[in-house]
């Protein structure tokens, strides 16, 4: 059975009696106090009603508990309830049980109690529910969802860092999802625009000046990053069963942490959990550098461009890993939850 959380919000109705009736009840000849009614509606955490829930009423004045079942709208009621103190317990398949606070029911007419919904909902936030063991794919999916929330200073994407040393391996689908998430993030386009402006100021590569030259530099810069992350972060990791993420060490001496950061472009974690040569990242840098010869100006093409872009990509990655290890974890939103 799969268990979840059931926030059972019960609107309880109790009887009230007028002051005159209370005085009358003190008389030896007064009639037997009128019974009351307890009614309510069962809701889950999404505020949807829960039909066919089992509702049990118990109290010191009762010889045996009374049991009813909520209808298709989650509604239930107990009629002819003698005045006294009671508790209501609600259970349903797939949900955790819920027990109400003590309910004091008085004789006479009843009315819907106000304010009970919020109070009960607040109390239920502390319920701990056991769930079945998730599969590695389900665990990895949840971890990627968390990683996709990681942003430096709250807005710069920092998705390719795992702060969990025991993170589940990524499926091929998740590797492509993570690569696409970075490639099409609005901040990525802004960052490429800034880098292109810097290249325009330095007249590199040899594109013309003006708007046309800026557009060509922008396209080349974006293509460099896109091909690098798709080849080295999705395609090759899927084919070679390697994890494209940087695994934050966070512990040990500064020397060991620096060595871990600097060697990560060349040594990675396989999907089997073992350390192995980082063919994916190296291949991504080489592939991106080779493809750049197709769209850079003729005067910039050649082996110089190929090796230059490869070394730049590899050096930038090593520097980024050092920053991840010693600086960025402190300013990355969500990262502190894993330290």
Using the CA coordinates, give the radius of gyration. Answer: 32 Å
Indicate the overall shape.
elongated
Helical amount among residues, as a percent range?
25-40%
Ranges where pLDDT stays below 50 over 5 or more residues in a row are: 1-27, 111-131, 335-339
Q: Can you tell me about this structure?
A:
A hairpin with a 5-residue loop joins β14 and β15. By secondary structure, the protein is α+β, with helices and mostly antiparallel strands. α4 runs antiparallel to α6, α5 crosses α6 and α8 packs across α9. Strands 3, 4, 6, 7 and 8 form a five-stranded antiparallel β-sheet that branches. The chain has nine helices and 16 strands. The longest helix has about 30 residues.
Core attributes:
alpha+beta; disordered N terminus; elongated; 17% strand; three-stranded antiparallel β-sheet; 9 helices; disordered C terminus; five-stranded antiparallel β-sheet; single chain; 339 residues
What would a concise description of this structure say?
The protein has 339 residues and is α+β, with helices and mostly antiparallel strands. The protein is built from 9 helices and 16 strands.
């Amino acid at each position: 059975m799969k268990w979840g959380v059931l926030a059972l919000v019960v609107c309880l109705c109790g009887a009230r009696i007028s002051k005159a009736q209370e005085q009358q009840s003190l008389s030896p000849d007064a009639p037997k106090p009128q019974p009351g009614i307890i009614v309510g509606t069962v809701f889950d955490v999404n505020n949807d009603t829960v039909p066919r829930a089992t509702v049990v009423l118990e109290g010191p004045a009762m010889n045996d508990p009374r049991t009813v079942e909520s209808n298709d709208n989650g509604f239930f009621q107990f009629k002819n309830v003698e005045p006294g103190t009671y508790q209501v317990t609600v259970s349903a398949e797939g949900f955790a049980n819920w027990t109400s606070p003590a309910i004091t029911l008085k004789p006479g007419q009843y009315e819907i109690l106000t304010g009970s919904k919020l109070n009960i909902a607040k109390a239920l936030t502390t319920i701990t529910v056991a769930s079945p063991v998730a599969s590695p794919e389900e665990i990895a999916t949840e971890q990627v969802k968390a990683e996709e929330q990681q942003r430096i200073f709250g807005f710069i994407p920092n998705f390719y860092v795992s702060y969990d040393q025991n993170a589940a391996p990524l499926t091929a689908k998740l590797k492509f999802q993570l690569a696409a998430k970075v490639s099409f993030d609005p901040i990525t386009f802004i960052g490429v625009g800034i880098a292109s402006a810097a290249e325009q100021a330095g007249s590199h590569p040899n594109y013309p000046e003006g708007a046309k030259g800026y557009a060509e530099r922008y396209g080349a810069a974006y293509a460099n990053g896109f091909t690098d992350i798709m080849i080295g972060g999705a395609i090759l990791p899927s084919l070679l069963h390697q994890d494209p993420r940087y695994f934050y060490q966070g512990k040990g001496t500064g020397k060991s942490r620096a060595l871990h950061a600097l060697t990560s472009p060349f040594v990675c974690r396989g999907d089997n959990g073992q350390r192995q040569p980082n063919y994916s990242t190296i291949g991504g840098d080489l592939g991106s550098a080779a493809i750049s010869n197709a769209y850079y100006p003729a005067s910039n093409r050649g082996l110089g461009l190929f090796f230059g872009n490869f070394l730049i990509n590899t050096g930038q990655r090593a520097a980024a890993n050092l920053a991840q290890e010693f600086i960025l974890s402190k300013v990355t939103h969500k990262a502190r939850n894993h330290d």
